[in-house]
Amino acid sequence: MRQSELSPVPGSRHRRKRIGRGYGSGHGRTSGRGSKGQKARSGGGVRRGFEGGQLPLSKGLPEKRGFVNIFRTEYDVVNVGRLDVFESGAEVTPQSMVEAGLASSLKKPIKVLGAGELNKALTVKANRFSKQARRKIERAGGKTEEVGIAKAGKG
């Protein structure tokens, strides 16, 4: 077999369809673009969301627009009432909360919120506490300690 004898598999190569080359071509005259107008022209068409000059839906629904704070810290939330799974006098750390199934992982900082009741004296270490959570832990005879949040990308 020589290089000059090679050819593509039959049916794998197609001729380019030449449109707009007269009535007899089957795609003459309007060339499959319908009638005249902005969409029939080269480069024609309107941007996404354009409604012909009518006030676009995106502007008519102001609650769908707005500002998103890219620096927002997203916390893994643990309520005070769920801390009852620990023994009285225990030291509760973010690691022990993950092991007990109260928090999903250590990727997000942990914030303790005040929902529920606590009946044990615990030393709770977390990244943040709400005022109510701090008050309930201390009222039960425990202590709260804030541990810092490791910033991603700083190293």
Describe the protein.
This protein is of the alpha/beta class and 155 residues long. The protein has a domain at 76-146: Ribosomal Protein L15, Chain: K, domain 2, CATH 3.100.10. Helices cover 12% and strands 13% of the residues. It contains 3 helices and 6 strands.
Question: What key attributes describe this structure?
Answer:
3-stranded parallel beta sheet, alpha/beta, 155 residues, Ribosomal Protein L15, Chain: K, domain 2, 3 helices
Mean model confidence by pLDDT: 89
Measure the end-to-end span.
62 Å
Strand content: 5-15%
Strand order, largest beta sheet = 1-3-5
Largest sheet: 3 strands, parallel
Concise description?
The chain contains three helices and six strands, in the order H-E-E-H-E-E-E-H-E.
List the helices and strands and how they pair.
Elements: H1 57-60, E1 76-79, E2 91-92, H2 94-99, E3 110-113, E4 123-126, E5 128-129, H3 131-139, E6 143-146
Parallel strand pairs: 1-3, 2-4, 3-5, 4-6
